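A common beginner's mistake is to predict each chain separately and then try to dock the pieces by hand. The better habit, illustrated here, is to supply every component at once so that their relative placement is modeled jointly.
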Amino acid sequence: MHEMSIANELLGQLEAIAAENGLARIEQLTIRAGELRGIVPEALQIAWASVAEGTVAEGAELTLDIVAASARCEACGLTYQPTVDCYLCPQCNQARPELLSGNEILLTRVTGTEET
Amino acid sequence: MSKQINVVKNVLDANDALAASNRSRLSQAGVLGVNLTSAPGSGKTTLLEATLPALAERDIATAVIVGDLQTSRDAQRLEPYAAEVIQINTEGGCHLSASQVATALDALDLGRLGMVVIENVGNMVCPAGFDLGEHVRVAMLSTTEGDDKAAKYPTLFQPADVILLNKIDLIDILEFDRSRFLADLDQLNTAAARLELAAKHSTGLEAWVDWLLTARAKHTAAG
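With all components supplied together, the output reads:
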């Protein structure tokens, strides 16, 4: 349930964003996560609802976009798309990826109501 | 009024920044940081009970930061062998974080150490996603867990710098299919070293200790 740690970090960032932008309430947030990160969407939703309770982001709707990974083969240099259960380079059959993306978790959009 | 803010913020920024700072503290002190990950019961603590005296013989003083949900039993087991032991109880947390390791490093006298081993919480999923500031990541499987686990838990084995197969003395009794395990690893990680051990009997210990010493020379100025 590492989703709980992610939700906690997320809340800290949202509280800072709310303060910087004068938001009284956060209504919606969008997360982009690499597929190799192994986030279980349902687990993240439950963790998020739980940590957001009683905060500026209580009840905020979380949209999670999972995006494909990209890697450069350290053996032959080819750029390819590894998946969570197969990192084999299609050109040289080695699994020596330098991951370019796929492990990231990014907060990309926040919608909120401004203080009056 | 509703306001939309477009940002690109790494959600794990705080953890990653602390991890980078941990790593640079270790490097500057000439201390190798090792993140040891496996399922509960694979033999992480037993491996360290065998490894720490062997490192001491090579004049490497090693501290252990050990994470568990509860109890200080692992710390008690390791105290006779380690230069220093710090137990972290995560009280439900399924992995260690860079901030917990940073606090532990504050309490260590890095100047008199050669290595810090972080024995992560026994878990094949959660520790994989959190950089603690280590130089090298160790993924261990024991034969008792079954030969299908690399395929089932790829995120543990993919980022590892070395993959250990422990309890190798039981491989025949358990009918653990080594070729199946290795074929699964070939799909995930052909860069990591692969070593077989029976930590309880110190079998395979020398190659493992040599690997650690080589890693220390590579990642720290102390060499």
